[in-house]
Amino acid sequence: MFNQIIQETNEMKTSELNAGKLANVNGQNVIIKFASWIDVRNLPFLVITAGMIVMLLWAGSYKMTVPGADGIVPLVTNNPLISWHFKLFGVYHGSDLIGLTEVIAAVLMITGFFKPQLGVLGGAIAAVMFFITSTMVITTPGALTAVNGFNYMSFLGLFLFKDIINLGASLYLITKFGHKAILAQHK
Q: How many C-beta atoms surround the C-beta of residue 119 within 10 A?
């Protein structure tokens, strides 16, 4: 099964690169040439991974401060998926644990460059976190605001909504690190 996945991926890559070469030979589509240049250098993976790592380290360490802990109180206490966390650990220890979880996910992603299976684990931790925070758009008071009878996302709602994109990025990292882990096993 793994051999079939690798073969299909390699065939897909070859056909994509050949499409880019055809555009170069004919001197036609600069957009395809540009897309091929980005793909060959693996830029989406590198940019998403670096951005995710920096964000998780920064946000995680901030949650381990008093202002960081105080800032997430209305988000956590109004969400049924995680409100138990502050009840069990208290605001400051609970926020420390959330921050530590983010830092661990980032460190696992960094380690994933050398041990891809750990990158999969880091992506999975991030996916769970961002799934939970994505639901805060619905549960946090003030995330929606009514204007002329229609509900829009407020600035708080838009801030929370970005975690849906982070959830997608985490899922993407799981697949990319997973693919690298499969390739590493078959070397």
A: 24
Query: Quick check: helix, strand or coil at residue 175?
Result: helix
d(CA 145, CA 157): 9
Taking only the tens place, the pLDDT of each residue in 86-115 is 999 999 999 999 999 999 999 999 999 999
Question: Of 142, 135, 172, which Cα lies nearest the Cα of 156?
Answer: 142
Give the integer Cα–Cα distance in Å for 104 and 45.
19
Residues 6+ apart with CB under 8 A from 172: 44, 45, 48
What's the first-to-final CA gap in the chain, in angstroms?
15
Q: What are phi and psi of 144, to 5 degrees?
A: -115, 145
Closest CA to 168 of 5, 44, 83: 44
